[in-house]
């Protein structure tokens, strides 16, 4: 079997055809979802089955049973059954009769001005009882009465159908028994995943990039999970180094069994901005397969992949990609083909749990995302969710369903992603232009990021006049403090070191191009350059 | 110091006066909240300080450090600081320009008809940039740009201010350094609390009612936390029995240290419907104080306290309390005085973490509630939230702020609670009328609940013709199956047994009056009665 990339492709038209055949989705309060019924690719059953991961699970996860009250929902299938079972409030008691939102349709682009205008915007409304209106006058398949009541931990059937379709469109999973669950965001998904796979009593350790997302490290530490950092290059973690660590693992010396979980951010990695190529992903997957390592693929920036940075010619004006962005011109296929394939696309063993997020592409405050993994892993994930967060909140589910399913559809959402991608490309270019202009290249070096929202600046410690007197950490602090004095906040590289007790591999600072205006980003980099120059006495 | 009940009372007028003095709340994206600045009772500083709970914390909780990226927010206070620090998206990228909701004002009551009508309903709107409109044209203090971005794990200042005021109004905390944090609902709060206070490696056990909320038991079990059930009467758990268990604790025989955490649902307990009186709460608190036990007070049904059930006279029609409910006639004081004081009101040591929920009184789908405890405990709670759920979602925060703060205010919300209370009272009465009419009292017995949404039916096993052949569990199953056959779903008592390996204290079934219509509830109880009669051969 080839493992060089996705082995099939479905289209939005395929999804629409399947839905037409299915007919209207009927899913009442806390309905149970048949995930497979929403899969579009007809050949899914012929794909290989996922491996079992029982030996990888923690004691906590392995011991989870189903929720007895939620299980009783099975009796409610009988039409004349009256439930005095679960304490679900009646929607009559919900104080909200309808919810409306002002959004851009995409017809004239996705800017705030478009959303506000008559031509480019519309107001959409979610009623309390939309899903149970008479068949001759259908409104939405989802509503406030269902969406704001208790639901299943995995998510509502309505939102899950959209997520399954989108995942199949983007990830084209490579094995048959893949499944999904909504999450309360990827921070929560990672907390649950670490508790599922790592066992404090077993002294389990976690593999990750040598510079890793600080919040991920802070999630692992209190659980007693020590971290092994894997060296990186401009494409992220090095498979050879990963293989070396695992092949030479000395359990006695380490006081820990050989690690069986890798946490990685493959695209626009936080903090380094590195993006793994397809070849890199294949190599990493192959090492994980060799050592039976499970992969936690965290991809908040996946859709923020962008073309390579082109320095502008001297004196030329920078063209903002957003100013030339035409939603009508962007085809779904063209957009999807521009992205490096996901680990799920390559994963023929069910070795991956992918974490998807709406935080960076819609709103962080939705606190809703989803995970994709084998049905075995998803089942354990749901058991955990049932007694923890109970799953994604109802407001996010009904409102994002209205936006993504009823208003934009899959194609509209891809066009929105194109808009966001163009906007981040423009922001990245502004930041990098400023770096070209204001930073002393003999001291500061970088690789232009091709995804995400972060730029990683290496500062050569060896060239510092006090290199022999001051530790790397002390120098980093000195430059950081100078930055603060000059009025620019950047993140210190040491905050992201996977192994806090090891010497740092170098001096780095992380800058984001996510939020500040073009003018302010430029000024901020000027200030940063000044701070470095002063510190180095240039 | 007296411990007989709340020692002060603040009023809505006091809150309004404090707010007027404070002026407009300015709290931008991810602003840090000064909790104490929102306290209205001027004498709070003179109350005793909470005890320290370091010895009660788990290794996991004790080892949590602050989130390094969130801590960097402190540098942003300088007005000319440009942040290239945190990866917070710009609100320009949020696809929602405004959100509107149709709600009842309360002027003509809170029914769905009132909300839909011109006289009783209104449509309120949350804009994207409301909080930064010019001072001469102020809109809301909160908006989409702030609310739907990343925030602090504790919650937004806007929503926290409302929660602190409401908590002070209802709970009148009895010590000075009390604090609050928003939660992702009480299920999540309990999961976090158990991980904070119970340590698997220490073999910590948990005290609770002998019949307890099944999901709470399912939360504890996979964490390796064994449960000790405390016997109950019609007022819930028995303090004498609690004292006996703790006084006679044999750590060696139990394989566990003396328990230091009690989980209790004081009002409308799930599943028994029992409500602890003030005297009972004082007695339980005193035993916990004697043995240094920390109390987790779970109060989803606190505002669903209701007058005692009065059987209707033969042939008389039942008057629905909702039909006579007049919001104008309900004063805040009268409503609050009708409630048994909370544990927080009695807690002069900071021994309690109270969990409040909007699920039963607004919508379950908000997945937002709050906890009240000492600032030490809240600080640990927030550290946990930062690397787990990241706190309550933004949609719930902006929409419930609009409802509770901007539209209803504290007084309006109390009137809404009065409406909900009246509605549940009416539902309880219908269910109990049906029990009076259809159940064989020689076999089935009950105490009419005075809070919550559950009714607990005891069925006398000793009178069953097969009492000597069949186990209690087998009999319970037989009756349950008959119920299912007849088309009524009730919950089995055994599902709620705190100690699953111990003999059951009796045969019980839990019925809810939360959701089914009056007609269906009556029919359901008729079916249940029929099932019992048939099983008993009556």
From TrEMBL, chains A, B:
It catalyses: an aromatic L-alpha-amino acid + 2-oxoglutarate = an aromatic oxo-acid + L-glutamate. It is found in: Cytoplasm. Its EC number is 2.6.1.57. InterPro entries: Aminotransferase_I/II_large (IPR004839), Class-I_PLP-dep_aminotransf (IPR050859), PyrdxlP-dep_Trfase (IPR015424), PyrdxlP-dep_Trfase_major (IPR015421). GO terms for biological process: aromatic amino acid family catabolic process; lysine biosynthetic process via aminoadipic acid; tyrosine biosynthetic process. Keywords: Aminotransferase, Cytoplasm, Pyridoxal phosphate, Transferase. Pfam families: Aminotran_1_2. Its cofactor is pyridoxal 5'-phosphate. It is an enzyme of class 2 (transferase). Its main location: cytoplasm. GO terms for cellular component: cytoplasm. It comes from the Eukaryota. Residues 182-528 form the Aminotransferase class I/classII large domain. One of its GO terms (molecular function) is aromatic-amino-acid transaminase activity. Belongs to the class-I pyridoxal-phosphate-dependent aminotransferase family. This is aromatic-amino-acid transaminase. The lineage of its organism: Eukaryota, Fungi, Dikarya, Ascomycota, Pezizomycotina.
